[in-house]
């Protein structure tokens, strides 16, 4: 069958016209952000582009990286998720908690969590995907370039999307031909397409895009061992997974349509048949929601322009210093003096015809002395905008000396972090909820949990489907470390203020001490030990105090009669 006769996904059917329109609108909505995203990433990775008109010495001030890493460090630890069996079955609840904990560890969810937060900080949006695997449900963090949404979707609420498209899924033709998920007709058409001139050309472009993507992911901390390797003769195609809603007679049905290079249809199934549920297997969140734009501004967007200005100014400072050190001069050629170069060094003597004050005149080069003050001002603006102040970076801030002033600065810096943590916690709740529903729909017959014995040796333990599966379901509870720490700080500040108002009140002092110990999460046993030790110390202090002498009483003398 020749290439021209291949029935492509872009046939003039109603379905294919719908897919084409959705893909176009989703890509156009996102592509307007790519220039900003690329610049954010380049500044984060210290990739500076030299502009010969403004700077010859090209340097990068690591303001972007420093800000992102500071925010990442203060944002949160990996979430703590606890499961409650709604029927009150404590045994199932205990086992299910172990299943989740083991999954979190084995599937490197801690790394996935870091990548997800870094995407939000750099690009303004983070998206996780849930996939069915042999032994459970895999949660992964998607590259923001690889997922495009319905432009009318509510911000951070993927269930309101009419369609979601996962793109840039690079696979070799031989991989696809061996995959049972794709139709026989699609595979036959793909082989013809891959060997056609436009298919070969597209394969080269796909391979370049794949290599760029791998470099970006490696720089973000993704293990290179997870990447596929392609041989020189491999034909590489770009798959799209198109999740869309289609009216089928009496109701709207969610379907998944897979196509290669925007040309060949490889699969077309209902979402329910494919994964056993009727919700999109994605979750998305932003740190600065905007009701008019699904692609939120990021902290990196606030830093990008100040960082570029700093790069230019510092580069100019270095350039001017270099020019001043090696001096440029005007030469009066009418006197017979000819331009020449010399190697600078101690004791070097430079011959010249005539009076050097008349024949040679140095070019005046500005020292840009006011630039350092301007640089400090720009840096402070960027820090205040992002919340990544010197205090948050663990550095002393000039002019802030008192404990009260420092506490105020820390509190203000935490405000943005706490606000971000709320959206972060909501996203993880949705992710855990969908993970639970997918587990109940696709859970394996048994799972292997690796437990530690009393000797420290790890051993596998089989957990069967009936051990954890619940007829009434589970409810996840997500604990955010940032929110907990913020509440603890507020509690300590309140107690400190009250104690300052009543410094000599022993009852209030004891109550405040107890509350502070509770805030720092001491166990009841530890709390009891501290209280007993404190009471004992006070008793000993009282017993060792010297006896105060009684006031001397004068003897009573009878009056003289």
In brief, what are we looking at here?
The chain contains 17 helices and 14 strands.
Characteristic key phrases:
561 residues, alpha+beta, 5-stranded antiparallel beta sheet, 3-stranded antiparallel beta sheet, 17 helices
Which secondary structure elements does this structure contain, and how are they paired or packed?
Layout: H1 14-31, H2 34-44, H3 63-75, E1 80-85, H4 90-106, H5 109-123, E2 126-133, E3 136-142, E4 147-149, E5 163-172, H6 173-177, H7 184-195, H8 197-219, E6 236-247, E7 252-260, E8 264-270, H9 271-275, E9 282-285, H10 299-326, E10 329-331, H11 356-359, E11 360-362, H12 371-386, H13 403-442, E12 446-452, E13 458-464, H14 465-468, E14 474-479, H15 481-501, H16 506-519, H17 524-544
Antiparallel strand pairs: 1-14, 2-3, 2-9, 4-5, 5-6, 6-7, 7-8, 10-11, 12-13
Helix pairs in contact: 2-10, 3-5, 3-10, 10-12, 13-15, 15-16
Describe the model.
With 561 residues, the protein is α+β, with helices and mostly antiparallel strands. Among the domains are: 50-121 and 298-328 and 366-487, no CATH class; 502-534, no CATH class. The chain is 48% helix and 16% strand. The chain has 17 helices and 14 strands. It has helices at 14-31, 34-44, 63-75, 90-106, 109-123, 173-177, 184-195, 197-219, 271-275, 299-326, 356-359, 371-386, 403-442, 465-468, 481-501, 506-519, 524-544; strands spanning 80-85, 126-133, 136-142, 147-149, 163-172, 236-247, 252-260, 264-270, 282-285, 329-331, 360-362, 446-452, 458-464, 474-479. A five-stranded antiparallel β-sheet has the order 4-5-6-7-8. The chain has a three-stranded antiparallel β-sheet with strand order 3-2-9. Strand 2 and strand 3 (136-142) form a beta hairpin. Helix 2 crosses helix 10 (299-326) and helix 15 (481-501) runs antiparallel to helix 16. The longest helix is centred in the last third of the chain and has 40 residues, at 403-442. The protein is flat and about 105 Å long. The protein starts with 13 loop residues before the first helix and ends in a 17-residue tail after the last helix. Residues 390-396 and 398-410 have low confidence and may be disordered.
